[in-house]
Amino acid sequence: MTHARGRSSRIALPLAALLALPLTAVLAGPAAAADVPTYRGYLSGIGDATHYTVVNTATGATSFVSGPVAIDGAVGPVSDLGPSVVYVSREPYAGGTLDRLHRVASGGGDTVLYSAAKDVSITEPSVSAGGTTVAFALDDPKSSAVLTVDVATKATRTLRRSTATTYFGPSFSPDGEYLSWAQEGDTSSQVVVARLETGAASVLSTSTAVGYEDTAWSPDGSQLALTLVEPDQAGSPVYSVALQDLRTGVQRRVLRGTRTASQAIGYGDPAWAPDSLSVLSSRAVITASGADPSLVRVATAEGSQPEAVPATSYAGSPSESGPARPSDSTAPAPVTALTATVGGATAHLTYTLPADADLADVLVTRTEGGAADTATASIRVGQTREVSMDVPLPAAGTDYGLSVFSRDWSGNLGPAAKVQVTSPAASTLIVSAPPARVGYRSAVHLTGRLTGATGPLDGQRVVLYARRAGTSTPVAVTSATTAADGSYALTHTPSWTVEYQVRYAGSDRGYPSASAKRVVSVVPAVSLGLSASRIVRGGAVTLGGSVAPSHAGALVSVQRYVGGTWRTIASTRLSAASSYRYVLRPATAGTWTLRVVKPADADHLQAVSPTRGLSVR
User: Fold this and answer.
1) Are strands 590-598 and 607-608 parallel, antiparallel or unpaired?
2) Sign of the four-CA dihedral 591, 566, 609, 539
3) Which of 92, 327, 382, 515 is the most exposed place for a label (fewest CB within 10 A)?
4) How many structural domains compose the chain?
5) Nearby residues of 233 by Cβ (< 8 Å), 6 or more positions away
6) Strands 518-523 and 437-439
7) pLDDT digits (tens, 9 = 90+) for 515-559
8) 310 part of a folded domain
């Protein structure tokens, strides 16, 4: 796909024409600390422009109104001073448009966190639970990206950027340690969850039939709300909202779009209520006369029906936020059935997750000696939502204690599940010394032996890596299995000067090891032929030949042996086929001894053709 698709396939909710008007804000006074209300935000059409509007859900009073023109927004954390708000403004600029991401703190103060370049679109902002970070999608005609911005420093970070994939609907996990989003490429659409700290991602859902275009993480961390785009029987898109259980992966539709000959009803922009018991959604009824947007709420219980939610001049982008979740001091149950399988420098852990509904992930620690009871930062080696993990074992023949801690969305850690492992004993890998230089198409033979602490290691796979001169990355080129005495033999035919190293990845019998490095230089093959062996003085003879491997475009020198010295008499450039032709017209009589030389380069030695004699009368 090309990125031109962008967000054009999302529910088309009508937005007013853009106006170059200054932004204004109306903020209500601080709410009472004893009774922090819930606030609802959405786009609304006021006059000739679209604003981001926030209302107190208990009283219906307006708490915040952005200036024109706003195109997206979200309500952030709520305190006794009121709600924090993020919204995107768009204004005409140099014949195009300029998008800016704003943050309005609880109690007031509008700050621009990020300004996009001309005609680059900022959409779908999401605020972390602590209000410290904002994530958003960024699109231009050629690429799509997911970015985060630090509220305090305005420092931005690009989590993903692609010219072939479109990103939708980033959403923070309840503790702000993970970010979900939807993405669509050439052949499939996916729902992805990534660690915010590392960017390491896992795919929760993949579909070739359904398009995912929004994600919204429930405040209790148990579910994602998703916008689904799927074709009806006639192939026209239908927009629905589904919930995906993050523990089981099961999806169920809670708002199903429909399409008839006269109208289409679509749902999108899902947003959770602070108690995780219901979901807000945009509802668009599209007929020949246009689109009629509205706001609905549906409970998460099976069989619930949507209910209309009052919203003045509603135009999209619902969001709802309330008081911070009560502090949870109850730790989750520990993981069970913990096992460890050691192979080389790695211990592969598997375990069963507890059934706690608020389970977020597991932390894994590693210590020398006994396993730890506390997951300190200095011994922590991993954090995952998966049911297995590979833990590095950094030294051979060493006892390690591995601890696995379950963690909930409040940060509570369950008791440690522990396992003891011992890394394999050290191994030694030796390799023979090959010739320092070989001709092109000549095979290099390497032999050696793999031994462990108690003797030869038989039946083990060793791999030959080759690093081409002038490059930095070795590549595996061949492998062998060690014999009963630990010996091996490897053969490779290099095309360029190469640095060889034999590596052993390790097993339960031996720790990984690598041989010494061996360098073999390659001499190209240069041929030379003459069109005649005898000519008269001033006559013409054609010298022709080729250089292998190909050095198309390189210069070669024609040399004559005179007075005990080779002297360059001409140069010519190799053709696209790495061949050359040169017409020589000797001016003196005698015997001419000729050769052609290909100079050395970054990954080949100098190469010389066979000599040829020419009699000139």
Assistant:
1) antiparallel
2) negative
3) 327
4) 4
5) none
6) parallel
7) 999 999 999 999 999 999 999 999 999 999 999 999 999 999 999
8) yes
